[in-house]
Every structure is written in C-alpha cells, then in structure tokens.
TrEMBL record:
GO terms for cellular component: cytosolic small ribosomal subunit. Residues 97-135 are annotated as: Disordered. This is Small ribosomal subunit protein uS9. It holds the Pfam family Ribosomal_S9. It comes from Ktedonobacter racemifer DSM 44963. Keywords: Ribonucleoprotein, Ribosomal protein. Belongs to the universal ribosomal protein uS9 family. GO terms for biological process: translation. The keyword Ribosomal protein applies. The lineage of its organism: Bacteria, Bacillati, Chloroflexota, Ktedonobacteria, Ktedonobacterales.
Amino acid sequence: MAETPKGEYYYGMGRRKTAVARVRLYPNGDGSITINGKPAFEYFGKRETHVSTIISPVRELNIGNYTITVRVVGGGTAGQAGAIRHALARALVRQDGENKPSMRKAGFLTRDPRMKERKKPGLKRARKAPQYTKR
C-alpha cells in the first residue's frame, strides 16, 4: 500500500453520476496517482481509457511532479473516472488561478448533469412500458 505524503496540498472535490471523488494534490511529488490506496493502473485494471481520462487535466496544462491521492466512493468505474477528473481540475485551479481559463475551455470544470432517470410506477424501467396486446 502506498504511503500518504505529508505537508501542504491542494484539495478538490468532483462528482459524476453517483460517484464522488476527493483529490489531494501534493506539489513537488513524484508524479504518482493513488486511488483508494492503490496505484491508478491497478485500481482501474485493464481500462487504460479511465486512467487517461483522469490525467487529462494534468496533460492539458503540461505540468508534472505532483503526487495525487484520491478517495472515491459510489458509482461505477466510468463515473468514478469522471469524478476524479472533475476533482483534479478543481484542485489545479485552487493551486493556481491562472489554470482556470484552460480548464474551463477544455470542459473539465463543468459538472456533468446526466444522471440515471428514476423508475416510474406502472412501467418496467424509467420509460419501458409493458408490452401492449391488442387482443
């Protein structure tokens, strides 16, 4: 298990679907990303697209040497990756206000409002109705 760095950090919280991520961004780090105590590639397994989603705010600014620790709960892997990206972008803006225009332009600061639609009474799912029979 990775050791938690000590000292000053920048904080960001992000949400996507039902996932909530809390990110700590430690400056002067080694570039590692730890999610719930595991390295990012181990946490997401073979899903490299999720890891590339997570590091896209850092790649957008073309900066390095940060240690990133994440606590994420709820949702599935895609929702968690989106929540981490949102939280990381917010932490980078908190670290330096000049990052805000590029993060905003890339769409990383906008909370994705799409949620699962609730099931309605009399229907099988949110919109699927029981099969209609004429006779």
